[in-house]
Amino acid sequence: MKKILAALTAVALLGACGADTDEAESVTVGMSYVPDVQFFPFYVADDQGFFEDAGVDVTLRHHGAQEPLFTALTTGEEDVLFAGGDEVMYARAEGIDAVNFATLYQEYPVTLIVPEDSDIMSPADLEGRSVGLPGEYGANWFGLLAMLDQYDLEDVDVQSIGFTQMAALTRGDVDAVIGFVNNDAVAMESQGFDVRTIDLAPNLPLIGPGLTARGDSFDELSDAYVGILDGVEKAIDFAAENPEETLDIVTKYVPGMSDPEARAAAELTFTATLPLYQGDGTVGIQDTERWAAMSEFMHSAGIISTEVPADEAMTTQIVDAR
């Protein structure tokens, strides 16, 4: 009789344990661009099961070329969005309920690009010179404004040249261009045009890409957000130790990567992007003071109409919970 009772008790305990086991939370993560090697941590985490290991079922969704950045997030089609901190600040100022919970690029990815043989060594040398950028919008524009502000530059010929930075530099149409260190600069190098990159400013008051969610979603999905960040961190570590295998994985997600020239170009982008994710080794770290400085700068520069308190645009809740 005692053996039967013991067996029944064990069965009951096992049933209770099974009942307490939560199923993996399903979330959709929006990649704010077409498939690209810059998103390699998400591809690796998906391919290697790191998201699943962290207890979250992730669907990756890429945006179309003309898709508004925050629409899918606000309508609920996406739960998480890969977006710049500056873009989140702008969205908050426009009344969109977007909250960043992890900064993934620990350095702002926009830079000043000059030909290798240029005598421009610092943004201060741009006085009386010309600089080109795609247009007066987005990260390139925000970075340019911050650079002009910090160096008190008043006589710089700013030209909107579309996405023709390399052509404009090679023809001498402009003396320098603004572009992404892990995109425009490496693309020029891959095409045989030697360039140098120059930091826009020390302590630049801008924050690059990270993970953003709707402010009203954290009570329900905070555990899933922790899992996403855990999976991304494992993927970054994996990529640092296995760069070639990482590129093999990326090939599964990015059309055209099987072409040798495309893979070689992707390798340059990967090499330039990995340090942005790694930072000082703490993936997702949040800097409240820097967020506050960004809000102040964007307001003073006329980018946003009112200052947004840092704790409305970002949270440390997810990072602190890990």
TrEMBL record:
InterPro entries: NMT1/THI5 (IPR027939), Solute-binding_3/MltF_N (IPR001638), SsuA/THI5 (IPR015168). It comes from the Bacteria. Residues 1-21 form the signal peptide. Keywords: Signal. Residues 26-257 form the Solute-binding protein family 3/N-terminal domain. One of its GO terms (biological process) is thiamine biosynthetic process. Pfam families: NMT1. PANTHER family: 4-AMINO-5-HYDROXYMETHYL-2-METHYLPYRIMIDINE PHOSPHATE SYNTHASE THI11-RELATED, RIBOFLAVIN-BINDING PROTEIN RIBY. This is Transporter substrate-binding domain-containing protein. It comes from Flaviflexus salsibiostraticola. The lineage of its organism: Bacteria, Bacillati, Actinomycetota, Actinomycetes, Actinomycetales.
